[in-house]
Specification:
By secondary structure, the protein is of the alpha+beta class. The protein has three helices and ten strands, in the order βαβββββαβαβββ. It has helices at about 20-35, 135-150, 165; strands at about 5-10, 50-65, 70-80, 80-85, 95-110, 120-125, 155-160, 170-175, 180, 185-190. Strands 1, 2, 5, 6, 7, 8, 9 and 10 form an eight-stranded mixed sheet that branches. The chain has a two-stranded antiparallel sheet with strand order 3-4. The longest helix is centred in the N-terminal third of the chain and has 18 residues, at about 20-35. The chain starts with a strand and ends in a 14-residue tail after the last strand.
Amino acid sequence: MSTPLSWFFYSRFDAIPARHLFEILRLRQQVFIIEQDCIYEDIDSLDPLSEHLLITQKGDQMTASTEGQLGSKKQHRVKGQIQSKVHSQRSAPSQTRTTEKALATLRIVPAGAKFEEVSIGRIVVREDARNLGLGEMMVRNTLARLQTRGEKTVTIEAQHHLANWYGTMGFETCGSVFDLDGIPHVQMICSLKSVHPTGKETKRR
């Protein structure tokens, strides 16, 4: 994938541009609801409280033009009779714009909103971009960001089959497997005091 990737971090929900909010919600719908065949409330009350990270890539160019559209039809009264006259629209110049597609996203839920600790959720990567390591990059970037803020621990609700993957980034399982919307999940916690942003353990002095 040669086209450069763009990273966007929004600390406030109302700062997300409409096009990016659309891409975030569409990607989550495509994966969590359609691909995983799971009907659940993806858009919830935590979204407006959360910070959102989005990775995009520019896609194909699209050309838009009004050429060929019918004009407006106006009626005129002439000597007691109503006559119709079609007024042709001028063809607008063609406009070329580059599309932008979402490849990955996640949200940071503040402490006290879902768990006692700050939590990460809605971690998702587009199907055709899962060989790029974007999921790991997003999680490590987020852990580093939270560590610089002074956060001590981060909680997630991980799909059970991904528990080992999260474990490589410092998360440890706490509790037993439980069902969430028909999919086995497990709660995991990461201690930021002992995990370096790269995921490697820091040297204790």
